[in-house]
Amino acid sequence: MRQTAPNPSDSEPMQLYLYERKQRHTALVLLFNMVVLFAMYGAAHKWIEPGEARDQLFYWINIAVPVVEVCLLLLAIYFWMNNGRFRMSVDRNRFTIDDPISKTYSFSVPVSEIEGIRQTYRNHTNYTTTVMYLNTGETIQLTPNYSYSRRALYDALKEANPTIQLPEHPYRFKQV
User: Fold this and answer.
1) What is the structure's pLDDT at 93?
2) Which residues fall within 8 angstroms of residue 37, CB to CB, at 6 or more apart?
3) CATH number for the 93-175 domain, one of 2.40.50, 2.170.140, 2.10.270, 3.40.50?
4) Dihedral (CA of 173, 92, 102, 104) sign
5) pTM for this prediction
6) Which has more confidence, 49 or 145?
7) Are 65 and 37 in contact (CB under 8 A)?
8) Strand ranges (E), 51-141
């Protein structure tokens, strides 16, 4: 995971914002989740009182935990071997996202075509969305899957195009 400040010595257009994350980092997170799941499984065995309800619970847990562990391991191996790179960048001309997992969230648009970004929260589904609106009428949803700094991203977009309408606070979502 990397976020950088502009580097004036670059011959390419000056990067106002750059966030990168390799899939090996995600693989390590998945392996950590495997350890946590196994620890929770062990703790449940130790502290849940014996009885019929416990037996019924562990009937299903003994099926689910190994399946989840195998799925996490296979995903971790895939991400480790693939090691794709998520990249989000803003320069004076373009806003680009390259997501190796989902091409739906990959795009490159001129900063001059961005009208604004809106963040919404749907209370009944507990779901947040961040949508970018272009002056062509097109909308593009920004990926929620990475922990990039919205504040730094929005500051870079505002620097590249001062007319962009951005949320007042990068981490507050309007309830709809």
Assistant:
1) 96
2) 65, 68, 69, 72
3) 2.40.50
4) positive
5) 0.76
6) 49
7) yes
8) 85-91, 94-98, 107-110, 114-122, 127-134, 139-141
